[in-house]
Structure formats: C-alpha cells, structure tokens
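Researcher: Predict the fold of T9SS type A sorting domain-containing protein.
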Amino acid sequence: MFFDIDGNNFNRVNFKNGYNSLIGTFDSTNNFNLKCIEVDNPEYSTINWTDRDGQTTFSTDCDYLSTNDAKKNIFQIYPNPVKEKFIINTSNKIEIVEIYSQTGQLLKTSKSKEVNISNFPKGNYVVKIKTDKETITQKIIKE
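Model: Structure tokens for T9SS type A sorting domain-containing protein follow.
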C-alpha cells in the first residue's frame, strides 16, 4: 500500500486504524504545518516512514485540542542534529526517555531533560519520550 499526502496544508492527521504496518511507502513531505501524525505504532512509523518534514512526529495521541482549550503543551528536542547532548523542552513531567537505533534496538534510557549521546556513533536515532500526559517519538541525527 502507498500513503501520499505530499504538498498539502495539514497540521494534524489521524492515520490510526490498526493496519499501519501494511503501508509500504509513505510520503508526507512539503506539509510545513504538519506537526503530528496519529498512528498505531510511533516507533515503527518513525523507523519505516522517513519521507516527512523535520517538524512532523508520530504519536498514538496527537492531543487534538478544541478551540476552547487554553494552552497547548510545549514539546521540542534541540539541537537536532546533535553533537554531544540534546535537551527536551516540555511543559510535562518526563517519566522516561528511550533512544533506539534505526533497527529498533534500545540503546539508552534516561529520566532527564538533558541527554548525553556523545559516545554514540554518527547516524540517525529514534527518541521515545514518555511524559505524564503523552508519548512522543521523534528522529534525531547524531553528528
């Protein structure tokens, strides 16, 4: 199967349907307002669906807010690409940070908002952050 939403003006997409693993090709590039794609398995999607813009993340809950909601939770990982350490900026309490290789191997866990990966080789990694309110998965690049 093929999923292509390239070049649209979406800011969120709910693609959670129980069959995400059947998607062979996925493209959500050129959606500069697309922040979150709701999926069945964020780790699988992050590793296998790489044709997306840098600000786009996968989550099981994109926290669709109504217009009556007063504020949105802040979430950011920086710097990315990473040389030695990255910082997680979130208004939520971090429960655990997990770093995975592109093959899905768990490499490191932390409970800190500042994570040192200076001993990692250059390459792409997947960061899964579980907070008291949500779980976010995002790709980082180690320089």
